[in-house]
Design brief:
CATH superfamily of the largest domain in chain A: GHMP kinase, C-terminal domain
CATH class of the largest domain in chain A: Alpha Beta
Largest interface: A-B, 27 and 27 residues
Helix content of chain A: 25-40%
CATH topology of the largest domain in chain A: Alpha-Beta Plaits
Oligomer: homodimer
Number of domains of chain A: 2
CATH architecture of the largest domain in chain A: 2-Layer Sandwich
Strand order of the largest sheet of chain A: 8-7-9-6-1-17
Order of helices and strands of chain A: EEEEEEEEHEHHEEEHHHHEEHHEHEE
Amino acid sequence: MTIVTCVAPVNMAVIKYWGKRNEDLILPLNDSISATFNVEYMRAKTTVMASPTFKENKIWLNGKEESFENPRLLHCMKELKQRAQKGNDVINWNIHVCSENNFPTAAGLASSAAGYACFVYAVAQLYAVEGDITGIARKGSGSACRSISGGWVQWHMGHLNDGSDSIATQFASVSHWTEMRILTLVVNDNRKKYSSTVGMRRSTATSSFLKHRADSVVTERVLNIIKAIKEKDFKTFAEITMRDSNQFHAICLDTFPPFMYLNSVSMTIIELIHAYNDFYGTPKVAYTFDAGPNACLFLLEADVPEVVALIQHIFPSDVAPVEYFKGIPVHHQNLSQELKAKIDIPKQNKGLIKYIFQTDVGEGAQVVKDENEHLLNESGIPKKLK
Amino acid sequence: MTIVTCVAPVNMAVIKYWGKRNEDLILPLNDSISATFNVEYMRAKTTVMASPTFKENKIWLNGKEESFENPRLLHCMKELKQRAQKGNDVINWNIHVCSENNFPTAAGLASSAAGYACFVYAVAQLYAVEGDITGIARKGSGSACRSISGGWVQWHMGHLNDGSDSIATQFASVSHWTEMRILTLVVNDNRKKYSSTVGMRRSTATSSFLKHRADSVVTERVLNIIKAIKEKDFKTFAEITMRDSNQFHAICLDTFPPFMYLNSVSMTIIELIHAYNDFYGTPKVAYTFDAGPNACLFLLEADVPEVVALIQHIFPSDVAPVEYFKGIPVHHQNLSQELKAKIDIPKQNKGLIKYIFQTDVGEGAQVVKDENEHLLNESGIPKKLK
């Protein structure tokens, strides 16, 4: 095998990863927990080709050639070669890598996680690497280790100095909680993106809350949310998810100088979800926010139509439905007058939410068997170039 | 003496009070530190009159009669009577109280602190109470205890169950750091005010960060900021002040459900101050935010003109200078091209900052001797009524 194409999913943390105890090995300060997004709607796709005729290693990301001399990339390559099956000539050949995402960078969803997971998974196929590869993906981009497996995943912080026990494992499969849906609300935002690598480093150096979180808060939350997911206890799952998102953003504010990923639209979404949950007297929706203003809402399939109708009521939009709704189609539902009357949040200006993307929990990284799907042609050159 | 009129200042915390360990006695979870604002520009003013002919206790706030049956008010009255000089007949008479603030509620500055300090101070004069009265003011409104003294004040959390050691003391006088100025930037905001009493209660119940702050962070900060103020070490003072404000707002976000007093204008002010401090390579300005979006900037007199010019450059306003500038007059200065070029923050929309109020550090509560200043006429009726 000298060519392989793979896809890998995006994942969304419900217990957040923020802060490294070792920057080189990318070892986190605490465990994190994530759901894997369905790879059908949102994924990285990577073709890796090895050939004795290639003069050098090359990589193209989203149609544009990038330097292979990226320390993280080289770190992954070195480990993959060490783990390759002995006697495999392929590891001595140069490789060409071509990778693309099918979701806009504007979505603010961690593309590097899916990207590195896909790259490591694909090269592991090529080199016939056996055993765990999440620890290798971790060295590309921390949360990439959570995009190898599907379903519900735990990234164990590990305790060994060499990081060999800092790996990700699945604790609940795709088929476990099939009613779960995730709505990503992509928020309009014109602020500069604040790098999460820089932010983590700064929080680790200056926020005493971050240390307290890692030492005294997360361990219990991880145990409780795993239990809640295993028991399909939505109430507990939702409360921990929301609290953990809030705590992560609290740490950003406790960092010096402070920074804030949430904007006023994010804050209004938070208020709206609490108002909606209060209306029912129990959590029906959980929000979580990563390093940006976009909301990820976890909820059960049956509640999607009403929640989407409520969002559209508070955040009106002129965008045509075909553009506004992405992923799993949303069934239309009218809001009850009672709900409208009880939600004490004013209608916002038009266009604050760009679009809504619905997905469910899906499988992990996988090989694409159809040869037409390769992103490189027979000479190892991208079929599409920018 | 059967009539007395007093004034009491506003105070601004640089180490924040957030969370009570006893709700009835208003005992805080941690020490706090504040600067007293000059009473000339912003103050509560209260006239208290006692007469054997008054049929009942009465109180007017800002020209409007309110109920005297307020538990906090009654709590203060009870303590003041217990502490009155023996044989003083006045304590058996009913009283009329008339109080007004000379600053708009819109300023979002804790009017209850100045109000209760003034009320307690005035009644203490009438009853010839001797010794500390900050512990009594505390029972009206926690931070009122910091508005009795001038200069720089420490509210000691205390450790006794009856709260008798939870009092405020001055540790640096008005004449100690005369170069210090405070600019309050009053921010336009149309959100509902989120009650600080409710917020504190909720943070105490749900935020593990609040407990960690009280147990492990504040004690050292208090020692260090007192040292910095005593040594006029602006750099250390500024850094602790900003960190403590950020930490308080981080706790609001770590509270469940979360709430946020800072809005996008507040966040832009924070960015602007950090950019300005970075330009000089040392803190020249410290921001602090209470339970609202308005910024309080601490800085030295010599830096006021440039900082105000910078604020006006980034936050343009159409308001006439006579309306826009309140308190100590600001001298006009042009911004250097170098500073303008280096501050990488876009000019904001007009009108985001309503006005700027400049003050310095001033004296505490005091008696007004001029009889024309009484707010009640000879019959004990307010001279001005709404």
